[in-house]
Design brief:
Layout lengths: L4 E8 L3 E6 L3 E7 L6 E8 L15 E3 L4 E3 L2 H10 L8 E7 L2 E9 L2 E4 L2 E10 L2 E4 L2 E10 L2 E17 L2 E17 L2 E17 L2 E5 L4 E10 L2 E4 L5 E10 L2 E3 L4 E5 L3 E6 L9 E10 L2 E4 L7 H8 L2 H18 L4 H12 L3 H89 L13 H21 L4 H12 L1
Parallel strand pairs: 1-7, 2-6, 2-8, 3-7, 3-9, 8-10, 9-11, 10-12, 11-13, 12-13, 13-14, 14-15, 15-16, 15-17, 16-18, 17-23, 18-24, 19-23, 20-24
Antiparallel strand pairs: 1-4, 5-6, 19-22, 21-22
């Protein structure tokens, strides 16, 4: 078996092209051609002299009506296998003019696109995707494989992986939407107007460049979130976490506490400010840190951010994710597939396809188990938290009811006191009239007996008011002295 690298170079000058591959990687580069034609070149790197020319009849076909380019792998594999060439390492180098609409699909193999402007759709089952110096609108979807994007300027970028990390560096775009079930998302040196980053299990790191305006939504179910924002940018950030800690090293911000988080707002910023970052950041299980620069976080902050029990469990899970995804780039993995491809035949082909699917299922099941265990722990913690919140709510309701009863009782007491004071006032007026210094009015009492009775009633009334606390002891003394005269 020769350890050779096979490269198919395909130059396409159609404005629209669909490319499919079962087990080949795809490399795309721009082309300046204007004519409508397709050419294919085969380059083989190795030491054997008898491989200068190969009969690869049937390796390509072009449907002029649909502009679909396809490859007859049976003929290609047979031709290459006769020469004992490692077919598993082959890849296609496709040259397409800028402004094209391209669809690329591959079962097993990497996809690389460089210096291309257009509408491009990329889909892989197992394989990494690499973009360099691209522009336009790109839609990327991979089941198992990492996505790396560098030095690109997009109108819109949509990227979705089931198992695999997404890393974007020096990106300028109007809209970026990225999601992964298992894997981290890193967006650094980014000038993006609208950003949506979501990871079910994995950390998210987002470093913004100074820009006019940015609206972002960042969320992870299990994982840490780190946001780095230029100090000169205005910001309104709502950060929430159910089980985790929120750490802020932002300067000149006002804070407002929420039930599960905090709102951070740059002092003096207006909602209609042109240089404002509006961001919603959430993590169900995991810490959130906000800062202007990595050096802003002191050692104590770094320690608290990394040392929590939840953070440690997340790190363990991420290590397992990394180990599993590295399987696909390991020599053992490549050698296994190389051996399968070197002994072609329908049975072997089916076995390889089954192996790929089994590996796919096994890895997804492994990550699913990790994710489910986290979710179970999160659910238990969440239920405990809800029970605590419910108990606290009952306490608040009981306290509120108690305060209401006390307020009602106080109101009734104030009303009784008001009535008692009114009675005292009337009694005092009556006593004053009865014992006026200028003598008793003969019309007020029919005889001495009725006058004596009235005096006794007045004394009893004064004592009653004193007992209720309506009048003071001094008031009672003055009234009783007046009655006795």
């Amino acid at each position: 078996m020769s350890n050779l690298e096979i490269k198919f170079e395909l130059e396409i000058k159609e404005p629209t092209v669909n490319i499919t591959a079962e087990r080949l990687g795809i490399v795309m580069t721009k082309s300046d051609g204007e004519n409508v034609d397709v050419s294919l070149k085969v380059a083989i790197d190795g030491e054997r002299d008898d491989l200068d020319e190969l009969d690869l009849t049937g390796i390509k076909s072009l449907n002029k009506e649909t502009n679909e380019v396809s490859f007859d792998f049976t003929l290609a594999e047979e031709a290459l296998t006769e020469q004992n060439i490692n077919f598993a390492s082959a890849f296609i180098d496709v040259k397409i003019p800028n402004g094209s609409k391209s669809n690329l699909e591959t079962e097993l193999g990497r996809v690389k696109v460089s210096s291309l402007d257009g509408l491009v759709n990329i889909e892989t089952e197992i394989g990494a995707v690499l973009l360099e110096d691209c522009s336009g609108t790109f839609n990327i979807e991979t089941e198992i494989g990492s996505v790396n994007i560098f030095d690109s300027d997009f109108e819109k970028l949509n990227c979705e992986t089931e198992v695999g990390s997404i890393r974007m560096t020096k990106i300028k775009a109007h809209t970026v939407n990225c999601s992964t079930e298992v894997g981290q998302i890193i967006l650094e040196e980014a000038d993006v107007s609208e950003t949506n980053l979501m990871s079910e299990t994995g950390n998210i790191e987002y470093t913004l460049l100074p820009s006019k305006q940015n609206h972002s939504k960042i969320s992870t179910e299990i994982g840490k979130v780190k946001i780095i924002i230029p100090e000169e940018s205005g910001l309104i950030i709502t950060a929430t976490t159910e089980l985790g800690k929120i750490s802020s090293f932002l300067k000149d911000v006002e804070t407002k506490s929420l039930s599960e988080g905090v709102i951070f707002r740059k002092k003096g910023i207006e909602d209609n400010n042109e240089r404002i970052v509006t961001m919603q950041v959430s993590s169900e299980i995991g810490n959130i840190v906000l800062l202007h620069d990595n050096t802003d976080m002191n050692e104590e902050g770094k320690k608290s951010f990394k040392s929590s029990k939840i953070a440690n469990e997340i790190e363990k899970a991420m290590e397992e994710v990394t180990k599993a995804t590295k399987v696909f780039s390991s020599p053992a993995f490549k050698q296994a597939f190389s051996g399968a491809f070197a002994n072609l035949g329908e049975t072997i082909r089916k076995n390889v396809q089954v192996a790929v699917k089994d590996a796919d299922v096994t890895i997804k099941d492994t990550f699913g188990t990790v994710r489910d265990s986290f979710k179970e722990e999160a659910h238990r913690a969440k239920m405990e938290r809800e029970e605590m919140l419910e108990a606290a709510q009952h306490m608040r309701e009981n306290a509120s009811a108690t305060r209401k009863d006390v307020r009602e009782q106080a109101r009734e007491a104030r009303e009784e006191a008001r009535e008692a004071r009114e009675e005292a006032r009337q009694a005092k007026e009556q006593v004053t009239k009865v014992v006026a210094r200028d003598g008793l009015n003969s019309d007020m009492f029919a005889d001495n007996e009725s006058a004596s009775s009235g005096t006794e009633k007045s004394r009893l009334k004064v004592l009653d008011l004193l007992e209720k606390g309506v009048i003071t002891q001094q008031d009672a003394k003055e009234l009783l002295e007046a009655i006795g005269k």
